[in-house]
C-alpha cells in the first residue's frame, strides 16, 4: 500500500482517509455534490482494486477495461497509469483516482 491513501482494517472494511483532503481543497469545494461523488468514486475504486491491496495495478486495470469492453495493450495501460500517477508509481492510488475523476480526463473511468 502506498502513502497511506487507503488503510485496510481487517474485517472492518476500508477507510479512505484521502477523501477529506478533497472536501477541504478550494479547487474542488465548488464542485456540486462533492460528498456524493466521493462516495461513488470510493465504490468504483474498490471495483478496480481487484487484488484488494489498496492500489490499482496494471493487471487489475487490464481486467477492468476488458470488462468495460475497452481492452488496451500493456503499453497503453502503462501510459494510462503513468499519466494518472504522474509517473511516480506503477499503480494508481486512491488520491490519483479521485483527482482524475474530478478532472476533465476521466472519460474511460467514468464508463
Description of the structure:
By secondary structure, the protein is mainly alpha-helical. It has a single domain, classed as EF-hand (Recoverin, domain 1, Orthogonal Bundle), CATH 1.10.238. Helix content is 54%, strand content 4%. A two-stranded antiparallel sheet has the order 1-2. A hairpin with a 5-residue loop joins strand 1 (7-8) and strand 2. Helix 3 crosses helix 6. The longest helix has 15 residues, at 34-48. The radius of gyration is 14 Å and the shape is globular. The model is unreliable at 1-15 (pLDDT under 50). It is a peripheral membrane protein. InterPro entries: AIF-1_EF_pair (IPR049025), AIF1/AIF1L (IPR042433), EF-hand-dom_pair (IPR011992), EF_hand_dom (IPR002048). One of its GO terms (molecular function) is calcium ion binding.
List the helices and strands and how they pair.
Elements: E1 7-8, E2 14-15, H1 19-24, H2 26-29, H3 34-48, H4 58-67, H5 74-85, H6 94-102, H7 107-110
Antiparallel strand pairs: 1-2
Helix pairs in contact: 3-6
CATH fold-level topology: Recoverin, domain 1
CATH class, named Mainly Alpha
What is the residue-mean pLDDT, rounded to a whole number? Answer: 75
Count of individual beta strands = 2
Cα separation of the termini: 26 Å
* Assembly state: single chain
Major pleated sheet: 2 strands, antiparallel
Radius of gyration: 14 Å
Strand content: under 5%
Sequence of strands across the biggest β-sheet: 1-2
State the domain count.
Answer: 1
Jot down its keywords:
111 residues, mainly alpha, Recoverin, domain 1, two-stranded antiparallel ribbon, 7 helices, disordered N terminus, cell membrane, cytoskeleton, membrane
Amino acid at each position: 500500500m502506498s502513502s497511506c491513501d487507503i488503510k485496510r482494517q481487517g474485517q472492518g472494511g476500508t477507510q479512505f482517509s484521502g477523501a477529506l483532503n478533497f472536501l477541504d481543497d478550494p479547487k474542488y469545494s465548488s464542485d456540486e455534490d462533492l460528498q456524493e461523488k466521493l462516495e461513488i468514486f470510493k465504490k468504483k475504486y474498490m471495483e478496480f482494486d481487484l487484488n484488494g491491496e489498496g492500489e490499482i495495478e496494471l493487471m487489475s486495470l487490464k481486467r477492468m477495461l476488458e470488462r468495460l469492453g475497452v481492452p488496451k495493450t500493456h503499453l497503453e495501460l502503462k501510459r494510462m497509469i503513468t499519466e494518472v500517477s504522474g509517473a511516480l508509481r506503477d499503480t494508481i492510488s486512491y488520491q490519483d483516482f479521485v483527482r482524475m475523476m474530478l478532472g476533465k480526463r476521466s472519460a474511460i473511468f467514468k464508463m
